[in-house]
Amino acid sequence: MSSPLTFHPQDAHFLDIFTHDIRSPLLGVYGCLSELEHVIEVLPDNDESKADLADIKAGLSRMESMLNGLLTISRRSRPGLRLAEVDMSAVLTAAIEQVQSESGPIDIEVTPLPTCRADLDAMVETFTHLLRNAARAGGPITVTGWRGERLHYTITDSGPGLSESMKRRCFELFAGDGSGDGIGLSLARHHVIRQHGWLRLRSLDRGGCQAEVSLPIREHGLKT
C-alpha cells in the first residue's frame, strides 16, 4: 500500500528548501511584532490593538507549526523499515518519558504488552504521538495489548471523546483542535500503514477516546 504521506526524494528535497526559506522571514516578522508589542503597550485604549496583534501571532504560530509538520513528514518518509523484535513495554516507557518531559506527569496504567516484530523507531514515535494525544484529552490513561490472529494495542483516555467533525477528519493533516501541531495522528497512521497495520480512533460509550493499533504477526526473517 502506498501511503499518502510518502514523498518522492526530489519532492522531499524541495520541501526542505521551501520550509527553510519560509521560516527565515517568519523570524523577522516575529521580531517586528515584538517591537510592536512594546509600542502598543504604552498607547491609550490599546485593547483592540493588542487583540489584533494576538491574532496575528496566533496565525504565524499556526503557519510555523504547519511548516514544521511538512518538514517532519518529509524526513520521516525516507528511511526504510528496520524490522526487529520489539519490546512494547520499553516502547511505552520511552513514549511516556517523552510526553512527561513535555507536559509533566501523566496518570497512566500500562498492562503487560505482547512483543512484536516491527521498526523500533517508528513504534516509539507512533506511541508517543498517540500518548501525547491521550494526555491532552485527559487521564487516567490505560494501555493494553493482546495477541490473537493479529497484535492489538490500545490507548484509552478519559477525555470527552471525539467530536462529530473530528470523527471524520482525525487523520487529516492539520485537522487538530489547535493544542498540537496537527500532524501527530497523521504521522502515527503513516508509520502503522507502512508496517501493514491499521490505526483507528473511536469514542467510547462510557466516555473517553480509544486509539487501537493492529499489526500483523511476523515470523523472524519474514520479508515485507
**CATH fold node name of the largest domain:** Heat Shock Protein 90
**Name given to the CATH homologous superfamily of the largest domain:** Histidine kinase-like ATPase, C-terminal domain
Which percent band covers the strand fraction? 15-25%
Mean pLDDT over the full residue set: 79
CATH architecture of the largest domain: 2-Layer Sandwich
| Poorly predicted spans | 1-5
Radius of gyration: 20 Å
Shape: elongated
DSSP strand count: 7
The spatial strand order of the largest sheet comes to: 2-4-5-7-6
Query: Structural class per helix/strand content?
Result: alpha+beta
Terminal CA distance reads 11 Å
What number of structural domains do the residues give?
2
List the secondary-structure elements in sequence, H or E.
HHEHEEHEEHHEE
- Biggest sheet architecture: 5 strands, mixed
CATH class identity of the largest domain:
Alpha Beta
Protein model, in words:
The strands form 2 sheets. The protein has a 5-stranded mixed β-sheet with strand order 2-4-5-7-6. The chain is 51% helix and 17% strand. It starts with 8 loop residues before the first helix and ends in a 9-residue tail after the last strand. The radius of gyration is 20 Å and the shape is elongated. The chain has 2 domains: 9-76, Helix Hairpins; 83-215, Heat Shock Protein 90 (2-Layer Sandwich). The chain has 224 residues and is an alpha+beta fold. A hairpin with a 5-residue loop joins strand 6 (198-203) and strand 7. The longest helix is centred in the first third of the chain and has 33 residues, at 9-41.
